[in-house]
Fold:
Amino acid sequence: MAIPSYAGPLETFWYYAFRAFCALVFFFLISPLLIIIPLSFNVEPYFSFTHGMLTLDPEAYSLRWYEEFINSERWMSAMQNTFIVAVCSTILSMTLGTLAALGLSRSELPYKGLIMGLLISPMIVPLIISAAGMFFFYSSIGVSQSYLGLILAHTALGTPFVVITVTATLSGFDHNLVRAATSLGATPTYAFFKITVPLIMTGVISGGLFALMTSVDEVVVALFIAGAEQRTVPMQMWAGIREQISPTILAVATLLVLMSILLLTTVEYLRRRSESLRGISAH
Amino acid sequence: MMANTVEAEGQLTPEEQKRLTADMHRSLRRKKIGALFLVAPLLIFIMVTFVAPIASMLYRSIDNPQVLEYMPNTSAALADWDGNELPDEATFAALVTDLAEGRKNYTIGKVATRLNYEKSQMRSLIMGTARKAGKLKPPYKDQVIKIKAGWSDIDNWKVIKRESKSLTASYYIAAFDMETTPDGEIKMLPEKERVYLAMLWRTIWMSVLITLLTLILGYPVSYLLASLPMGIANTLMILVLLPFWTSLLVRTSSWIALLQGQGVINDVLVWFGLVNDESRLSMIYNATGTVITMTHILLPFMILPLYSVMKTVPPSYMRAARSLGATPFTAFYRVYLPQSVPGVSAGAILVFILAIGYYITPALVGGQSGQFIGNMIAYHMQKSLNWGLAAALGVILLVFVMGLYALYSRFVGNNNQMSLR
Structure:
C-alpha cells in the first residue's frame, strides 16, 4: 500500500497521518504489556521508573520480586492449584469436545443447531452470571469449595473452544480418506486412529490450548466456587491487586506474558501447519 | 436376485421397495444414534455443569419459600383473610406459634430478612416479637400488639400475606427500582432510592462508549492490516494477538501501574511539565480508568472480525472508484465503507456483549463511578447476601446478552465464533 505517485499534498498528508495514527494504536496495544517487564525488576516497591532505572544504574534493578514470588508459599501453592485444575480440565475438555465435534460434523445428527447452541453457551453467557449460577448449584450438590467443582466448571467453560476448533478442522476433512482406508481392510477403529486423528490433531491441540488458557486465566468463577485451599494464581493476583499491590504481581505478570508469547507462537504454528495440511496456502 | 428383478421389470416390486425403504431407514437411524452417542457425553456434561446452574439461578430469582416454610400456620391462617381489618385471634395465635417455633429452630431470622426486603421495619418487628413469643399465654392479640405496635398496622400483615406464596416477582420488581405498595400496586421508588436502573444505564452507556472507542481505534488498524502485504501484516498482527492471549489480570494490573497517581503516565507528564506535581491526574479508580482499561482489553475483539471482513474486500474496487474520478474520501465513503459494514456490526456487537458483562476490570480499576451491573450482582452474591435479587439482576443481564447474541450470530453465522472472549 505505497502512496500512489499521483497523490497531491493533501493526500500525502492523510497518508502519513493515517500511518502515524495506526502506529499510535499499535503502541497503545503493546506498551502496557512491555512496560511491566522492566518495572518488575525495580529494586524499589514503586510502579514507576526510578531515576536509577532511567540512567541504567545496575543497582536500581534486582530480582527481589521474583525471589519473593518463588519463596512465597501462597504463590507456590497457587501455581500448583492452577496447574492441577488447568491440566485436568484441559484433558477433559479435549476429550469431550473432540467426541462431540465428531458427532456434530455428521450430517445425520438431528437438532444440530440446538445442540451446538447449548454446547457453546458457556462461552456466550457473561462469566459473572455463570459464576452466580454455579455458586448456587454446585453448593447444592456439594462440589463447591473442592478441586472437583473447579475442574468441572473450568471444563464447561473450556469445551466450547475445543468444539469450535475441531468442528472447523473437520469441515475441511475429506471423508473419502476414511472410506479408502476401510476399503483397504482397516477396521473403523484403526482407520480412526491412523487417518482421522492425525488430520484433526492440530485442531484438537489448538482448541486444547484455548481451554488451557481459559482455565489458567479464569478468576470470576473461581472466586465464587473455589475455597481457600483451591486458591489459583488469578485468585491470588486478584487478592494482591485489591489489598496491597506489590511489584510481586508485576513479576508474576511478566512470567504470564512470557507464557502467552509461547502459547501464541504455538497456536500460530499449528494454524499454519493445519492450513498447509489442508492445502490452503498461508501466503 | 434383486438385480434380476429390477432388470426384468424395470422397477422394484412393492414388497422389495418396502424392504429397501425399511433398510434405508434402519441404516439412517443407526447413523443418527451413532452421531448422538458421540455428542451425548459432552451434552450431558454441559447440561449438568452449566445449564442446570443457569436454570437454578432462573428459579432462585422467583423462588420464595421462606414465609411459607417457616411460618406455615400464619400463612395458612392468612389465606382467607380479606385484608380489611386486623386479623382475628386465631391468626395471632398462629403467629405466636410460628415465631416461637422459628426462634427455637433458628429459622425465624431467614423470614425476618426476607420480609425486610419488602418493608424496612419488618426485621425488628419479627425478631423483637419472636424473642418473647415463647412466654406468651392466650389470648394473644393484645399482648402481641403490646410487644410491637407494628402488629396493629394492617400493611405489615398485608406484606406477610403477599409473601406467603411460593413464587414471587418481588426480586424483579426491586431490580427495576420499583416497589409493591401494601395495596398491591406496583410503582417506581422515590428518585433518591433508585439504584439498579441507573447502574444498568451506566453499564450500557459506558459499554457503548468503549465499543465506539474500540471502533475508532480498530477500524484504521484493521484497514492497514488488510491492505499491507501478507508478511508485514502477519508480523503486525502479533501486536494485536499478544494482548489477546495475555491474562486479563495482567493487563489490568499493568494499567494500574501506568495510570495511578504515582504511575508511569503521571510521572512522564510531570517530567515534561505538562502537569503540576501536586495536581497529578486521577485516571484510575473512576469511570475513566474503567473505560481506558476496557478499551485496551477489548480492542483485539474489534480488530479481528473487522480484519477478517476487510480481507475479503478487493483493493481494485477502490482503485476503480478513483480512476472514475472519485476523490479519496468519496471512494472510501461510497465504496469501501459499505463493504466493511458486516465487520463493523460483528465487531461492535461482540465488544458490546463482552463489555456489558464485565466484572473483574471495573471492580479493580473502576472505583465508585466505574462499576458495572456485574459488580452489583457480585455485591449481592457475596456481601449483602440477597441472592434472589442477585439472581434477578443476573437474569435481566442474561436476557439482554442473549438478545444481542442472536443479532451477532445473524451477522457472522455459526462457525465463526472463535473470536468470542
Summary: Chain B touches chain A through 93 residues (CB under 8 Å). Confidence is low (pLDDT under 50) at residues 1-6, 414-421 of chain B. The two ends of chain B are 60 Å apart (CA to CA). Residues 2-50 of chain B form one domain.
